[in-house]
Structures are given as structure tokens and as C-alpha cells.
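Supplementary Methods S3. Input chains for the assembly prediction are listed below.
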Amino acid sequence: MDQPVFRLAVADDLDAIVGLLADDAIGSQRETINPKAKRSYETAFEAIQKDPRNSLHVVVIRGRVAGCLQLTFMPCLSNRGGDRAILESVRIASELRGQGIGRRFVRYAVDLAREAGCVQVQLTTDKRRVDAQRFYATLGFTRSHEGFKLMLGPDDRHT
Amino acid sequence: MDQPVFRLAVADDLDAIVGLLADDAIGSQRETINPKAKRSYETAFEAIQKDPRNSLHVVVIRGRVAGCLQLTFMPCLSNRGGDRAILESVRIASELRGQGIGRRFVRYAVDLAREAGCVQVQLTTDKRRVDAQRFYATLGFTRSHEGFKLMLGPDDRHT
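Predicted C-alpha cells for the full assembly:
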């Protein structure tokens, strides 16, 4: 297999990244490659690029974007004031799974977090992603927490 | 009961916040009110205050800090580029639990997230915190994700 290259995402990668997010049993319910939605993805991409604590990364194989992830550094008081890293939106193209690319990609991100001085890396994965749960366990992650989400709409103020 | 006041934390609240983090069955294993550790908490506090996407909040009752939480806004590509909010280190003083203070405090934070344009609020809570899990479910949060953590040490590079 050609060696994968891990690097920061650039603007030209955006269509491929959104394609990866949409090409997914769960993600396809909420993502779209509709051109009308493109501006909102571009806005988010620019916000991530401007924020020194946020970064998007891709894995490139034979010149093609084959995976993506977001890395967020979060200053925190708990754990004696140690920064933590959050891994988000980790995706590998479906036809390239099972070849160890995701494993090397996550290790690349964990190394970035360590080099930045983070004391821990955390992530959540949908309970339906059983393969992902096994994958993170084999990388040494501990399934210690329950992950809760609350979707917000403009009309559901509750106070 | 005197009305709780919800507000941004200031530097003078820091000792009380660290006290809340340490006064906890799980937190007491990792937090310390040892004066030598104070500088690392102060550094984290300053980093949070300087970051426009991070903020610490307290609930004050009769002039006393009775609870704390951290709110982080995270620009994200998924969910069509909508920002999400992360709730972290939510604590209410043990002797003041069960009075609805935490419920109002979390709703205050959710309202801040909504006003900032976030499309969702997410959090993780230790699987051992059964009361917390029930609490977030009654606030409308869905327990949809598994939360994984990897602690980082300086000597455990794996690539």
C-alpha cells in the first residue's frame, strides 16, 4: 500500500472532508454535499483554521483525501489545570478501512496532543458504532464515560 | 432559599472552584488544594479567560460560590458546520444538591450556548456518576454516545 501522509487540512480539502462526513450510515442523516450548504461548511472551516486551539487534519493516500479528523485543545481546571485534547469527526473512507490507516491517523493526532502538553485525549462515539468502540479500546482508550447530547433549536428555550 | 446568582467566574473565585472540584469522590483522587499546585490552576484559569470560546461560570448563593461549570464553544464541520457547546466540570457543593440549583445552572449554560448559535450541547460524565446520568436525562439530554479517555504521560510515545 502507498504510504499515507498525515497533514493539516487546507481549503481545497473541504469538499472531500464533507464527502467523508456524509458517506456514513449515521452522518448521511445530517450531512449534505448539496452546494447550497457549502457556505456553512466553509464558514466552519475558516473558524477552525483561525482558532489556535482547533485544527482539521487529513490522511492522504495516492493524492486523495482518505480520512479526516478534528483536534481541539481545551484549557481545563480539572486534572490540576492540564489541557485536554478532544478528537472529533474521525473518518476513514469506507473502502480503505481495516488496513490500519485509522490506527496510524489517531496515533498521529495523539502525538500532536502530547507535543502540545495535553494530559489526556478524549472523544465520544455514537453507541451504534460498535466497530469504532472496539477500535478505540485497542488503541488504549478507556470507555469510562457516558456521552450526552442535547440538540438545540431556536424555539426551545426552557427557562 | 436565597436566589442563586449565575455569573462568569473571576480570579477571586478560583480557590472556591478548585475546592468544588476536589470535594468529590472521583475528583478528590486527582485534584488538590495544596498551595504548590495553585500556580497550575491559575495558569489554566488565565488561559480559559483569554480564550473567546472558553468560559468558566459559577453559581453564587448568599455570597458563596456554590457551583461551577466550564462552557466551551467548538467550531465543527459536522452537523452542517454548526458550532457545538461542551459542558465540562459541572459541580454543585455537596450540601446544596437536590434543591434544583444544578438544574437551573445547566439551563443557564444551555441558554448561553443557544444565544451563541450552537446547534448542540454535549458533555460526558463518568459512568460511576449514576445520579448525574439521571440528572442530565431529566434535562432532555440523550445518552447516545460512549465516552473514551486516554491519559497521556511524557514517556509513552507509541509511534
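The longest strand of chain A covers residues 64-74. The two ends of chain A are 56 Å apart (CA to CA).
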